[in-house]
């Protein structure tokens, strides 16, 4: 069993403190969800875990199996077993989807133990069919010209092929119609097991109808203020964030959308 532990994490961007002491623990075999109002730091948390240099960690720690991730480069974190499905995946012309995924897999393997191309393609095509992706997409440039839904499916395809210890899924449901949401959720559920853990960042209950989390964390004001089971997410969907904020005695302004 592997463990991702975040302790008292403070993060700033452009001199403004966004995260103000986040504490969170995730083990393989578990799927956690993070919900919260706009601007509370959910995406900042995901980017900080993965090592985006635009975000400055001013206090606290992030460890994976006891190893300090904050001392690692982005590629070292990926090799250690982290994966980030981005909210806005980048388009990268010049490298095909298949080349990128094959290279990412081999980067985590010893140099003398590269995954044979035949084995790679067999698994790749099986997973693409599982995700209702056209096989021709494997030979297109990475995300180049992909629709929003295709990009999100492609992120899940990468996760299924790379098989990380922990995946951070930053609003993987954003912009998806119901059919695409079901497919993406199917991919996440297929990964569930003792060797995989996920941290899903979402605004909406609808993703959690298809991928039922073990734990739901609520962020407000740059820190985790409440935790519970799937019923907590359903409560937020019904009541919004203002009632929970008031119960906790927090002085946090919410947008009309969040109330």
Automatic annotation (TrEMBL):
Native source species: Lactobacillus porci
PANTHER family linked to this entry: ABC TRANSPORTER I FAMILY MEMBER 6, CHLOROPLASTIC (PTHR43204:SF1)
UniProt keyword annotations, A-Z: ATP-binding, Nucleotide-binding
Entry's family note: Belongs to the ABC transporter superfamily. Ycf16 family.
Matches recorded under Pfam families: ABC_tran
Name of protein: Fe-S cluster assembly ATPase SufC
A molecular function (GO) term: ATP hydrolysis activity
InterPro entries assigned to the protein according to its UniProt record, in alphabetical order: ABC_transporter-like_ATP-bd, ABC_transporter-like_CS, FeS-cluster_ATPase_SufC, P-loop_NTPase
Domain ABC transporter: 4-246
